[in-house]
Amino acid sequence: NEILKYLKEEYDISDVSFDTWLLPLEVYALEQPGNIVKIIVPDANFLGYIKKKYSTMLMVSIAEVTGIKCDSVQFLVEEDIVPEPAATNQLIQNNTNTVSLATLQNANLNPKYTFDTFVVGANNNLAHAASLAVAESPGEIYNPLFIYGGVGLGKTHLMHSIANFILKNNPKAKILYVTSEKFTNELIDAIRNKNNISTTEFREKYRNNDVLLIDDIQFIIGKESTQEEFFHTFNALHEAKKQIIISSDKPPKEIETLEERLRSRFEWGLTVDIQSPDYETRMAILRKKEEMEGYNIDNEVIKYIATNIKSNIRELEGALTKIVALSKLEKNREIDIELAEKALKDIIAPGDKQEVTPEFIIQIVADHFNLTPLDIMSAKRSKEIVYPRQIVMYLCRTMTETGLQNIGKALGGRDHTTILHGIKTISADLEKNPSLQNTIDILKKKISPQ
Ligand code: ADP
Ligand code: MG
């Protein structure tokens, strides 16, 4: 522990790097002659990385702290030996770089999504470790990093964590996070010379980066011109040893309409997955959210949520929010199991297959545009809300059998003429605006994946 503490301070290692790579290490033996220190690494996947990154730091720290001149360190994998369990330790606060809001906005980053707020469990530890390695050494080891997994399991959170980490260590780093939808829409606009961006500017914007993060790549699939452009963007960045990070709902080999040359490039680096969280991880995530939001919720209620909501983490968060909201609504009623049952009766145990209903469409569209379902249903008339609301009307009309009257009802009691007007507006825009077409295609896939 003293060696590690020395190393952490001497080399100014961040808490998360320390906890992930160094804390789990254990000295196994000191071999003489030769003063070789043998160290156990619990996760075989990252032995190579730890060796490359930390060997020298460890040798220096061992010599400084123990006075024994250490000629080399050797790393062993836990499977080879049966070690004692690693001690869990508390952290030392440091790393005081602050990143300006403007920098975050330019990169499209959410400051809340960091490694500190990401709970590591059996379902995501590989993805977490790989992301951290890339954040520490962008462009140097795993390029591209390809993260895949189902909806709401933390892919976007991890990508932002990487970007935020890099910016904190190097505020001058050029970082750009985009969804593949945005990439596609900007390309479409550039080709049509809309919104004052030319294709040259488009290329510059995407190629002039140290780190490019493309979220939900599955949505450029099947769009030839976008794949072509992304292929060139990828090559330019990769050749310049710039880091590329990609997320998707599936691994490259299972994405059917992905061009072969892109597929093989995606597999050049490291591919990691995120699975659904197990019970322990669900509990840990709920406790973390509780702490972050300053809620005070009975342990029984937390257990109740973790037992009943298994599919994804967004729903887990949603459940917590619903319970707290209901408690507030009922004059700060005490949060107990009874209240939790009432708040969650719609989420817990619905049928296995998600039916496409106006309510479901509202939820997906709201999420997509960073709004809440209540915004969509409200009387608010700002452009940021009116347009998504009209998209809801259009999607309800084309994807469900619901009549105008009932669409109006689902949208907070709107008149059927309003609904008709909304549908017409979107239909007309679709004819002249291919990037809207792209957005609608993506929303349809989100609503009905098959
Ligand atoms: P995805 O991009 O895979 O659909 P997100 O990254 O958007 O999922 O995650 C959905 C929500 O769950 C976000 O609010 C995110 O902060 C939260 N979340 C996901 N994984 C974790 C985790 N391991 N620890 C804490 N919060 C998480
Ligand atoms: Mg996401």
From TrEMBL:
Residues 141-273 form the AAA+ ATPase domain. Oligomerizes as a right-handed, spiral filament on DNA at oriC. Domain I is involved in oligomerization and binding regulators, domain II is flexibile and of varying length in different bacteria, domain III forms the AAA+ region, while domain IV binds dsDNA. ATP binds at residues 152, 154-156. Residues 1-87 are annotated as: Domain I, interacts with DnaA modulators. Keywords: ATP-binding, Cytoplasm, DNA replication, DNA-binding, Lipid-binding, Nucleotide-binding. SMART domains: AAA, Bac_DnaA_C. Residues 328-450 are annotated as: Domain IV, binds dsDNA. This is Chromosomal replication initiator protein DnaA. Its main location: cytoplasm. Belongs to the DnaA family. It holds the Pfam family Bac_DnaA_C. Plays an essential role in the initiation and regulation of chromosomal replication. ATP-DnaA binds to the origin of replication (oriC) to initiate formation of the DNA replication initiation complex once per cell cycle. Binds the DnaA box (a 9 base pair repeat at the origin) and separates the double-stranded (ds)DNA. Forms a right-handed helical filament on oriC DNA; dsDNA binds to the exterior of the filament while single-stranded (ss)DNA is stabiized in the filament's interior. It is found in: Cytoplasm. Residues 357-426 form the Chromosomal replication initiator DnaA C-terminal domain.
